[in-house]
Each structure stands twice: as structure tokens, then as C-alpha cells.
Amino acid sequence: MSKFDKPIFIVGAGRSGTTILKKTLSHHPEFYATEFELNYLWRAGNAGLLHDQIDPDEHSGKISKAYIRFMLWQMLKRSGKERLVEKTVANVMRVPYIYSVFPEARVIHIIRDGRDVAASAMKRWRSHSGGGYLFRKALTIPPFDLPRYGFRYLKNKIKRAVNKTGHDASWGPRWPDMDEDINGLPLPAICARQWVKSIEAVEDGKWDFPDGQYTEIRYEDLLCNTGAVLDQLQKFLELDKPPAEMWNYAKNIIRDQGNGWEKNLSESDLALIMSEAGETLEKLGYLDENIEEQGAA
């Protein structure tokens, strides 16, 4: 198997700040951050699976895992860098699979207030990705999976054209029975459930990692207490110190975006989100007064 030096994988629910975190780490001169989401690659040999919860024992064999390692090794080798940083949002559903493919991995789970996530995800469900971006992502499809994905793409294109919901047939990390939920729930509830399912999947799967190979950060801390988060990541990733490039990016690009859900959610949308995510929000402390004040600072 190709040798990797403690590759770094960022996981989190869609719209939780995974991209901001990846861009921050990409400013380390020794790190290579992959350009695209690599869900097609991670699903190598499992293109027929209708959800993203790939079980390392049930759904995939040694050939698929070796193929994933080989392709990511080739990307890292071409970059000339020493350490891989990879972020595919759907991996939030399959943390044990990451460990089965990369037992030397370091995994960072970024968590964001589910109300903000749902508000942002609702916009994303209603938007369209650019054709150029989709084409470049399609280049990562394993050749043996191309026919299946081609058929699925056409099917989803037709489904979107005829549906009257005003949003994608599906977007973001998929859980088992997601299609049934989409057909039975309004969009705010779907987005809230997607956040909850993502949090639960990591909570269940993180125990596969030995001590020192998994850590969690909060999106709100990354924005408001950036220095403390970079110090945490410095220790976790065993860096001498975060280089000036990372500090400068964090200082100049990362900025408090405010408590977006208060501005972007109607009372009815918020009620639907709370019905799905209230228990998880409370468990994570997001309903505490001090947390809400921190997010609005």
C-alpha cells in the first residue's frame, strides 16, 4: 500500500465550514489539499449504493480500498507536497471506512450550529452547481463506475425537471431511507435531519480511531477564537507551529458571519428545524445562552 504521512481528513455536515477549514490548512506549505470533493472516488466499487454509509466490512473489499489509496497517492505525488488534506462532505457518513482505508489518518470533525447549517443548506438545495465544476468532478469517477453514474445523472436530471418542489432531488450526505424522507418532509426538516444524521454518524464512527487520531472543533470557535483553534490543530497535527500563511489566511479571510439562522429562517422554518434537531442542538450546547451570544458576537 502507498505510504502516507498522517493524511488529514476533514469531516462535517454539509455547510458546516469544512471548506473554510480545508482552505486554512491548504496554506501550510507542506500540505496538499485536494481541489474537489471526491465522493465518486470514495464510492469506488459501491456506485450502486443509494446512500453514503459505506460499511468497511459489508460494502467494500481490498480492491476498492487499494484503488482509493492509489489515486490519492498519485494526487499527492504530483503535487510535490508531503501531506494530504482531503475534504469530501459525504465522508461524514462513513468515518469507519476512512479508518479502514487510511489507518494512519488524522480526522478533524468540524461542528456548526444546526440552525445555521439548515439555513445555508436550504439555499444550496435550491441552487445549481456550475457545469464546469461538475465536469471536473466527473473526471474523478472510477472508469468501472462510469455507466452507472451516467444513467443516474440522466435520471436525476429528468427528476429535477419534472418535480415541483423547487429544489434538487437530492443534495449532500445521504443516509439510508433518505429518498423516503425527501418525499415526506418539507425542505427545512430535510436539512435539519441531514445535520442530525451527520452528527450521529460521526459520533458512532469516531471510536474506531485510536487516541490522538481524531479531534473536534466548532465552526463558531474557528471564526471567533481562531488562534485557539489553530493552537489545537497545531498540537493535533504535530506541527512545529502554524506557518505565517495559515495565520494570515485566518486573519484576513475567516470572519464572523453572524448568527445567520436568525436572519434567514422564518418562524415556521425554525419550528420545523427545531422539531428535527432540537434534541441534538441541546446536547451539543447550542441552546445555551452563552453559545448563542458567542455566535452573534
Task: Explain what this protein looks like in three dimensions.
It is a single chain. This protein is α/β, with parallel strands linked by helices. It has one domain (8-295): 3-Layer(aba) Sandwich (Rossmann fold). The chain has helices spanning 18-26, 39-42, 62-79, 95-101, 114-125, 131-138, 146-162, 178-184, 187-205, 219-224, 226-236, 244-252, 260-264, 267-283, 289-295, and strands spanning 8-11, 31-33, 83-87, 106-111, 214-218. A five-stranded parallel sheet has the order 2-3-1-4-5, with helices on both faces.
Give the mean pLDDT: 86
How is the CATH topology named? Rossmann fold
Question: Domains counted in the coordinates: how many?
Answer: 1
CATH class term:
Alpha Beta
Q: Element order, helices and strands? A: EHEHHEHEHHHHHEHHHHHH
Measured between the Cα atoms of the first and last residue, the distance is 47 Å
Helix/strand class: alpha/beta
What profile does the largest beta sheet have?
5 strands, parallel
**CATH architectural name:** 3-Layer(aba) Sandwich
Q: Could you list the spans in which at least 5 consecutive residues all have pLDDT below 50?
A: 290-297
From the spread of the alpha carbons, the general shape counts as globular
CATH superfamily: P-loop containing nucleotide triphosphate hydrolases
Cα-based radius of gyration, to the nearest Å:
19 Å
Q: What strand line-up does the widest sheet have?
A: 2-3-1-4-5
- Determine the strand fraction and express it as a percent band: 5-15%
DSSP helix fraction: 40-55%
Strands, total number: 5
Number of helices: 15
